Amino acid sequence: MNDEKNYVTAEGKVEMERELEMLKNVRRPELAVKLKEAVAMGDLKENADYHDTKEQMGLLDARIQYLESVLRTAVIIENDGATDEVQIGSTVTIREVGTSDDETYTIVGPAEANPREGKISQKSPIGAALLGKKKGKKVKVETPEGVVQFEIRKIN
User: Fold this and answer.
1) Which terminus of the chain has a smaller tally of CB atoms within 10 A, N or C?
2) pTM (predicted TM-score)
3) What is the pLDDT of residues 25-66, one digit of tens each?
4) What are phi and psi of 141, to 5 degrees?
5) CATH code, 6-76
6) Beta carbons of 134 and 144 less than 8 angstroms apart
7) Measuring CA to CA, which residue among 64, 63, 79, 61 is closest to residue 11?
């Protein structure tokens, strides 16, 4: 059994619980009805509805198991406001050295990471490089395009 902790924000946990509830109590029963209707059509070998629904159900069940696993091992990230060091739960403003554009990210666990929403995993290259660092420090990050250097401008 994997005892790894899954760091999530309180909001992220609520969102995952809401998604799990919807998948188990709405989406799965809908698919069960659709599957039953497809089976009633007969000849399962060439029944596209049956095969599609079975595939959807498999993906849905995998998502349910994943969410249950994450929630079972969830550790809520407590962000008590500004600190002098980047930690899980920190919101960090960084700037790539040589540019004038700031980027702001919240450091979260992998289960909650969503770069489009400004949430990066503490295990991602940028997240891992920022952990434990202080405002004003420069960090080097190995990316697929090569090494990039960022300056930490603000930590909340």
Assistant:
1) N
2) 0.81
3) 999 999 999 999 988 887 787 888 899 999 999 999 999 999
4) -125, 130
5) 1.10.287.180
6) no
7) 79
CATH topology agreement for domains 6-76 and 91-155 = no
**3-state SS string for the chain:** CCCCCEEECHHHHHHHHHHHHHHHHHHHHHHHHHHHHHHHCCCHHHCHHHHHHHHHHHHHHHHHHHHHHHHHCEEECCCCCCCCECCCCCEEEEEECCCCCEEEEEEECCCCCEHHHCEEECCCHHHHHHCCCECCCEEEEEECCEEEEEEEEEEC
Strand 119-121: give its sheet, edge to edge: 119-121, 102-108, 91-96, 146-155, 138-143
Which CATH class, in words, describes the domain spanning 91-155? alpha beta
Q: Residues with Cβ < 8 Å from 148, sequence gap 6 or more? A: 96, 140, 141
Q: Give the integer Cα–Cα distance in Å for 107 and 121.
A: 6
Q: Looking at the predicted structure, is the pLDDT value of residue 131 above 50?
A: yes
